[in-house]
Fold this sequence. Notes:
Elements: E1 4-10, E2 29-30, E3 33-34, H1 35-45, E4 51-56, E5 67-70, H2 80-83, E6 94-99, E7 102-103, H3 106-111, E8 119-125, E9 138-145, H4 149-157, H5 167-178, E10 186-191, E11 197-198, H6 202-214, H7 234-262
Parallel strand pairs: 1-4, 1-6, 4-5, 8-10
Antiparallel strand pairs: 2-3, 6-9, 7-11, 8-9
Amino acid sequence: MxxxxxxxxxxxxxxxxxxxxxVPKYMVPIDGIPLYLHTHNLLSELGCTxxxxxxxxxxxxxxxxxxxxxxxxxTGDLADKFLSSRxxxxxxxxxxxxxxxxxxxxxxxxxxxxxxxxxxxxIGRLLPSNYTGCQWExxxxxxxxxxxxxxxxxxxxxxxxxxxxxxxxxxYDELLRKCSVETQPQLVFSHINDFSExxxxxxxxxxxxxxxxRVKPVFHDAIAPNAKTKKASKNELKNxxxxxxxxxxxxxxxxxxxxxxxx
Length: 263
């Protein structure tokens, strides 16, 4: 397996969070521990040894994790949330940018470890969630190899703001156009439909906590990336085929809607 680094982005403005619970979003309590520590522990259990939390200078201290203070507004442009991590991208291997306000299920976290050469992979949700109560599509993380840095940087530096369209989705829209050409990197979207969620606002967090206590979470047990597994049963195989089919259908629907709405 090629070298892999996970950068947890915790240096955002948090304008919609409004200092809820008197802590940043990445420090909200989840089952008695801060969100950032849940993220670190989960990724460590899955075998990742290179995890860095990027925070703003002067932010509350994070204990038990590798912290790197950064300047989050290096250009003042829309893409700063990504570009502010540029100095820490691996020059050989895969880099993963994971948003610090995301709670990942074990099965969703495993998607971070799916790496492939000349590929840019978005991990998130293409539709409203029927588990968490969130009515929006979400991007949880971005995974890419060193061989895609040039096109990724080019698209980030040329992002043009659009009304109510977050930077992550603008980047996905542009790459969706560019990566349809055979000479460009392959673009993949890993659709996650379980209790994984992005806490953009206090309402997101409160709704998620309420639903998590009332509805039994649906996700598979965590399996280390290099673990050998037994032969899948027929039911597991059927579920896998169904999942892939639905993923293809959802992606096609998204592309169609994108072309109609965004042109």
